[in-house]
């Protein structure tokens, strides 16, 4: 009697998913997030390659299932750590791709190396599907349940250990999975098996000792460490990122974004804090005399303190504490500050508290460790000033490296929320890095106009002022109309600091480009056009500056295809910084995934045509459509729900942990149940019951989820997490049924197509992760959800039933 190794399947599935998430984290540190996205998404084609491999060699491998199965698990464990170490030795620099063709060669090498571990893991699971066609539902259930637990496990490990060291845990987990599988398959121990396991264990331990992170030389941290005397004095890591505290005694840090040249006060000593090697924030030494913080009054972000006298201030994004120091300098009576990363809070509030002047312990300062928008949504407090700190890297921002990052802080709905938490005559102040040609400053201005209109303001032009310095711009939105007295204060503030006024209602063109002179008053012209003829300006402008929304939260996306040729022609004169690299990398990833998938999907068909023709009694087209549609639909639904629940749970980490694990675990339970249902209704009807359930529940959530969230928004985190599980579970349960039922149907009449269907589904999953993001950028997450339901409808219509002779 065959014994199916369910436990080892679950453990290898958990290890593979953990490895995927960990690689994303590691490559975000050593490269940038969007290149990590590209590399890992292509590496996941190992699942598609596995299906092709098993389809071609199924008959040769099947008699030796125990050894092939355990061998692939061990190979996954060894390659998971070895391939990453080898990948770091490849001199790949993504910023040189357009100049050096050899970078394409190095990139291809990265793909091959990182594909191997996923190929081996997928082989193990795919072999289990082939091994016993009566146990397909159980195998798929073990696969999904393991992946669900793996998603929780990797997040826990990222809290406890540095990312590089976790590679050893994953590799060792794979070796343990092989040991468990050895026991499950009732294999007898022998000298060779014992020696193999011992050598594998020693190899993982030894490889782990030589594993270090080689951060790209063009990242901010790498550039900073080139300065003589600089050194990393502390590093901390969590799922939110790796923080590196840097000291530079010989060439002191002077990190004061947007500081006016009129300032006569020298900034105190600072420590630099880098997140994933980028996005520097500074911890400033608190001076013996608060007047020595006077340089903070010479930033564009200080404007709001001169327009009024805010008594209660909310700072969104505390970072190293510069905005808190600015508020303290202006004698603010009550300061609430929000910081999402508890590591940063601990650095400023505990480890370097003496250096920073114990600012977090001051009587008028209250620190909240929370996600900024979620904190505002759950607070009943109103403020005289809400200040949005500028904590992203100028280099990453200006190079378009953040264009794939969803950001719910700068959407129309977010600005509307902040404005509703202002007291009458209160201010919302948002400071951004200055880009030329203008992009995010104008996008923010357009978003503010829309937010004011949605809040019922009939004359938004009277509620806005915008100024710019050499490096930064500050937009202030008032909960009221700006008075002539405030405009006089605005003018005096800018004249004394050599800042330029870009907009206030009634500003003359001659007053808009006086100090930091541009060849044209771009910001003045842009703001006027946005107020006078917005839609026309959106169409004509070289960059996409339409307001971002909660449905399309890509504030950093400015790319327009019609501008690509013009920008590319400027590559020899330094114009490539205008490209939105993140977006182009996403498109390139999709094209590569599609081409690779076509090859992997078509290759086995040659063999089927020659040697399997008589044993296949179903339409291969239906098999292709069914399993491809399931792969697309499953990931589209997951991505939609992750994005929707981010705002509800108010924390990206909680959301990923809750949504991803709930989807996978309950889909696993659905797969387990589907076998019982199939015994009563048959494979085809069981799969279609599941698809109908997905369609009905999904459509219900499209119509009602906003209302459900609004009803539960004020509840505690534990209640919201429980509600999230209850909302997702029924849909996920149904999603676990169509795939194993389809494979089981093939097992009943066209067994040789099982590995091909497994590969088709794997290729579709890779494509869907990239395609869903592109759809969301252009059309919004609601369209992602609708497309997911249409994919499931396509699967309903193409179930691979046996063709009657």
Class based on secondary structure composition and strand pairing: alpha/beta
How many strand elements?
12
Shape: globular
What Rg, in angstroms, do the CA atoms define?
28 Å
**Helix content bin:** 55-70%
Which descriptors would you attach to this protein?
805 residues; alpha/beta; 8-stranded mixed sheet; 4-stranded antiparallel sheet; 12 strands
What does this structure look like?
The structure is a single chain. By secondary structure, this protein is of the alpha/beta class. It is built from 29 helices and 12 strands. An 8-stranded mixed sheet has the order 7-6-5-8-9-11-10-12, with helices on both faces. Helix 3 packs across helix 5, helix 23 runs antiparallel to helix 26 and helix 28 (754-779) packs antiparallel against helix 29. Residues 393-403 have low confidence and may be disordered.
The gist of it:
This protein has 805 residues and is an alpha/beta fold. It is built from 29 helices and twelve strands.
């Amino acid at each position: 009697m065959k014994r199916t190794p369910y436990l080892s399947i679950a453990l290898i599935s958990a290890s593979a998913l953990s490895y995927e998430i960990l690689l994303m984290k590691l490559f975000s540190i050593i490269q940038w997030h969007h290149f990590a996205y590209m590399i890992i998404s292509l590496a996941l084609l190992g699942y598609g390659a596995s299906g092709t491999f098993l389809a071609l060699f199924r008959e040769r491998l099947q008699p030796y299932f125990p050894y092939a199965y355990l061998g692939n698990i061990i190979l996954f464990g060894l390659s998971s750590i070895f391939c990453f170490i080898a990948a770091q030795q490849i001199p790949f620099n993504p910023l040189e791709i357009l100049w050096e063709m050899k970078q394409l060669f190095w990139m291809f090498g990265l793909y091959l190396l990182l594909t191997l571990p996923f190929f081996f893991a997928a082989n193990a699971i795919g072999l289990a599907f082939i091994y016993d066609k009566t146990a397909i539902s159980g195998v798929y259930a073990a696969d999904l349940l393991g992946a669900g637990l793996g998603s929780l496990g990797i997040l826990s490990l990222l809290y406890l250990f540095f990312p590089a060291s976790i590679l050893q845990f994953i590799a060792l987990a794979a070796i343990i999975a092989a040991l468990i599988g050895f026991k499950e398959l009732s294999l007898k121990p022998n000298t060779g098996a014992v020696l193999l396991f011992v050598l594998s264990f020693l190899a993982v331990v030894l490889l782990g000792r030589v594993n270090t992170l080689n951060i790209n030389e063009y990242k901010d941290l790498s550039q900073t460490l080139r300065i003589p005397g600089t050194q990393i004095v502390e590093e901390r890591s969590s799922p939110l990122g790796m923080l590196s505290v840097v000291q530079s005694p010989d060439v002191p840090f002077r990190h004061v974004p947007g500081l006016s040249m009129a300032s006569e006060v020298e900034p105190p000593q600072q420590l630099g804090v880098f997140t994933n090697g980028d996005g520097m924030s500074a911890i400033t030494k608190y001076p013996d005399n608060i007047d020595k913080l006077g340089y903070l009054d010479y930033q564009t972000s200080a404007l709001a303190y001169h327009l009024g006298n805010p008594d209660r201030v909310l700072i969104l994004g505390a970072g190293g504490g510069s905005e808190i120091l600015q508020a303290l300098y202006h004698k603010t009576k009550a300061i609430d500050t929000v910081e999402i990363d508890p590591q940063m809070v601990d650095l400023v509030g505990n480890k370097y508290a003496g250096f920073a002047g114990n600012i977090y312990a001051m009587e008028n300062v209250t620190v909240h460790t929370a996600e900024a928008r979620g904190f505002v949504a759950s607070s009943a407090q109103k403020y005289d000033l809400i200040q949005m700190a500028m904590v992203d890297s100028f280099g990453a921002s200006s190079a378009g490296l953040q264009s794939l990052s969803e950001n719910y802080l700068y959407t129309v709905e977010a600005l509307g929320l902040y404005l509703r938490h202002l007291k009458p005559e209160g201010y919302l102040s948002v400071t951004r890095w200055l880009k030329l040609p203008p992009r995010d400053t104008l996008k923010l201005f357009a978003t503010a106009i829309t937010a004011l209109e949605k809040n019922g303001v009939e004359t938004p032009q009277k509620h806005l002022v915008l100024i710019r310095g050499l490096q930064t711009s500050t937009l202030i939105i008032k909960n009221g109309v700006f008075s002539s007295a405030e405009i006089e204060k605005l003018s005096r503030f800018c004249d004394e600091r050599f800042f330029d006024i870009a907009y206030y209602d009634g500003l003359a063109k001659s007053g808009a480009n006086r100090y930091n002179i541009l060849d044209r008053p771009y910001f003045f012209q842009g703001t006027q056009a946005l107020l006078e003829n917005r839609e026309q300006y959106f169409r004509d402008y070289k960059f996409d500056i339409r307001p971002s929304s909660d449905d399309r939260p890509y504030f950093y996306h400015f790319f327009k295809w019609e501008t690509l040729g013009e920008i590319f022609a400027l590559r020899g004169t330094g114009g490539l910084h205008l490209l939105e690299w993140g977006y182009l990398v996403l498109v390139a990833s999709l094209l590569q995934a599609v081409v690779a998938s076509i090859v992997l999907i078509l290759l086995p068909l040659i063999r089927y045509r020659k040697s399997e023709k008589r044993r296949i009694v179903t339409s291969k087209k239906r098999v292709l459509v069914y399993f491809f549609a399931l792969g697309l639909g499953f990931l589209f639904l997951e991505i939609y729900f992750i994005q929707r629940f981010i705002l509800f749970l108010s924390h990206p980490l909680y959301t990923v942990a809750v949504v991803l694990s709930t989807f996978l675990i309950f889909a696993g339970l659905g797969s387990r149940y589907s076998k019982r249902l199939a015994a009563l209704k048959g494979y085809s009807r069981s799969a279609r019951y599941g698809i109908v359930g997905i369609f009905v529940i999904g459509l219900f959530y499209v119509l009602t989820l906003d209302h459900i969230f609004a009803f539960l928004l004020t509840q505690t985190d534990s209640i919201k997490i429980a509600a999230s599980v209850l909302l997702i579970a029924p849909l996920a349960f149904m999603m676990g049924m169509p795939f194993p039922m389809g494979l089981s149907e093939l097992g009943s009449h066209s067994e040789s197509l099982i590995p091909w269907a497994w590969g088709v589904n794997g290729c579709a999953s890779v494509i869907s992760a990239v395609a869903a993001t592109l759809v969301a950028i252009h059309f919004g997450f609601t369209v992602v959800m609708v497309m997911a339901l249409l994919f499931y409808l396509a699967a309903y219509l193409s179930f691979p039933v046996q063709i009657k002779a």
